[in-house]
Amino acid sequence: MNHLPARRRYAALLCATLCSPALAEEALVLPDQVVSADEAPLSPGLELDRLSSTGSRLGLDLRSTPASVSVVTREQIERRGARTTGEMLDIVPGLNASAPPGMGNAVSWRGFGGGQVSQLFNGIGLHYDSITARPVDGWIYDRVEAIGGASGFLNGAGAVGGSLNYISKQPLRGHDFNQARLRQGSDHSGETALGFNHGLGENHVARLDFSHSQGRGYADRERREAFTSAFSLLSDISAQFSHTLALEYQEERVDNPYWGTPVLNGTGRPMKIDRRDRLRNFNVDDSLYQQRVQWLRSLSEYRFDEATELRNTLYRYQATRQFQNLENYRYNADNSAVIRSGALLQRHEQQVIGNRFELHREQPLFDLDSRWLLGLDYSHNVQMRLPRSLPGVVDQVDPGDFDPGSFWDIPGMQRGFHKDRRNQVDTRGLFFEHHLQLTERLSLLTGLRHERIELQVDNYRAVSTSNPAYFSRDYAASTGRAGLVYQLTPHANVYVQYSTAADPPAGMLATATLGQVEDFDLTRGRQLEVGAKFDFLQGRGAGTVALYQIERKNLATADPLNPGQSLAVGQQSSRGLELAGSLRVTPQWLVEGNLAYTEAWYDDFSERVDGVSVSRKGHTPGNTPRQVANLWLTWDLDPAWQLGFDGRHVAQVYADAANERRVPGYQVFGAFAGYRLSADTRLTARLRNLTDAIYAERANGTQLYLGAPRSVELALDTRF
């Protein structure tokens, strides 16, 4: 009998997969040309020869980039059954994400979270990640690329913990095809999706993708409906010049959104809920979350010759979001009633217009192979907030028998929106990147970015010293990277990298107040990383290892002597290990997994508690797990049948900086069975959360945001 606890057996199996002999026999030879997953032959597993634009803009593959870069391919998205951009993030090594309705993809990575992890859309940052990165249906996306750690040299302010890049599907030359998906599952959830890629004459290719999804949600009274669409037209105007016009539209409405489950009092440090509350929704009966998002991108490429190319991206983003919710719940002292508070009626209007210009050049330097790029960035970001907030207690209800009530019956709540403030952020950036092949085995990758940020805020509320009618601030940031890659064998290399990043003092300048930005500059972060990337067992396996240490200085924290003001003090650090790997055990069996270990702590941090400044030195930041692990097993039973199993482990987290409120870790498991009806049609049955585990994806001081219970779904995918 095996006496190991379940989580230890799970970790042992995962480590066995990741730590197989690395520098063994001849590796798998992969094609030089990497194409979209829609047309690429299925070659599941970790592909180190895949190109990535997120780790570098110089066209390097993962193997040649001195950084921990992951690509979640379309093939992986389909095999994992990831329905949204949020579920795609669970595939990235070490990353933990959740999506409460008042937030975007709330991520924790390498000990950092919130605005300290940049989330980009086709390489474009919106600098409002806590809202703009809310998960949407994943049908229109081709892949997600991720680079761990300080990466401001690529994408500008932010990105101390890493950068995530959601990349949309694009037209494919020389291939005409149509795709469709029908999916139906528990809680009346379903999806209908279609995709078309067709040539229009000799010089044009058009692509159209759209999806519609709906469901009741697992919490009482919750209803969700979403529509996403993307159209792009690729035109080869001449042999040297091509242009792509891309448009996207996303709309989502959630009625009676689940906002969290209150925790019981008197349970000690572990935060616990009443199991009877698992599916209860304490929001009011006419609560709402709604968003509309529009993208327009114009991408131009002009190639002068084989060595020189110009690229330009002009873009416009526009979004409107509306919140109408009662958001906060806590039990009274004897756990007999739930106290509801925090009524929020709010509308966000955001528009971003920008342009990125790049000059790419391949040119020998001192007879050494060399390629470089020089680029200019500009973005004009305007955010208007129209809130009406009533933070006080609304009522007290019996959790087992209560009338949710109406939002408009809340005392003091009025219809209509009123302007709060308008934030305008103008960013100008100059960046340079260079790859130099020093010897046959040693290469150097460097990057440098300098940007200037101008913040202007107009206040439409009552004017005071701490809330003036207008204020402005200017910032300047220089960030960079230097990395070396040494090729041990043709199929294994090691690397070392030093990189820096800079964060806005308030986390997000798009919503900053004077108290959050007054009297201090951008916060600074730096990272040292070493790692290895390798193939083994004649190319049947591949793996990556990364060790890192990150420091972030000048945290924004409350001023204990001046309520509403902030001070730039302190330091936060993290260090950790990330492993990722895949192994084709037999032609039928594929094992994939990743494992991350993170230690994160405050070096110098104080917060205000009952008017007193309290040190949190040595404490772990909230919602930061020490371990995150994933395991996927796939068995090709025969040419028609495929079976799969997956497991995920997330360690405990703390809900507060005092580390007094602890949320237990969890393990969730899933399984699927796929049957190929024909060469182009596949039927897949999938079971999620096999054990029906009750677990929290995220926590705050009084409530937990629970993960979904057990569910089943059936999906039909076809290509014609």
The CATH topology is: Maltoporin, Chain A
CATH architecture: Beta Barrel
Helical proportion?
under 10%
Strand tally: 37
* Percent of sequence in beta strands: over 45%
Enumerate the spans where pLDDT stays under 50 for 5 or more consecutive residues.
1-42
The CATH C-level name is: Mainly Beta
Mean pLDDT: 90
Counting H and I runs of at least 4 residues, what is the number of helices?
6
Overall number of domains = 1
Intertermini distance: 51 Å
Describe what this molecule looks like in 3D.
- The protein is globular.
- The protein has a 22-stranded antiparallel barrel.
- It has 720 residues and is mostly beta strands.
- The protein has a single domain (6-719), classed as TonB-dependent receptor, beta-barrel domain (Maltoporin, Chain A, Beta Barrel), CATH 2.40.170.20.
- 43% of the residues are buried.
- 5% of the residues lie in helices and 55% in strands.
- The protein contains 6 helices and 37 strands.
- A hairpin with a 3-residue loop joins strand 35 and strand 36.
- The N and C termini lie far apart (51 Å).
SSE layout:
Blueprint: H1 6-18, E1 69-72, H2 74-80, H3 85-89, E2 96-98, E3 106-109, E4 112-113, E5 117-121, E6 124-125, H4 129-132, E7 141-148, H5 152-155, E8 162-168, E9 177-185, E10 190-199, E11 204-215, E12 223-236, E13 241-255, E14 261-262, E15 288-305, E16 308-331, E17 338-362, E18 370-397, E19 421-437, E20 442-459, E21 470-489, E22 492-503, H6 514-517, E23 523-536, E24 541-558, E25 566-584, E26 589-604, E27 606-609, E28 612-615, E29 627-636, E30 641-650, E31 653-654, E32 662-663, E33 666-678, E34 681-688, E35 696-699, E36 703-706, E37 711-719
Parallel strand pairs: 5-8
Antiparallel strand pairs: 1-7, 2-3, 3-4, 5-6, 7-8, 9-10, 9-37, 10-11, 11-12, 12-13, 13-15, 14-36, 15-16, 16-17, 17-18, 18-19, 19-20, 20-21, 21-22, 22-23, 23-24, 24-25, 25-26, 26-29, 27-28, 29-30, 30-33, 31-32, 33-34, 34-37, 35-36
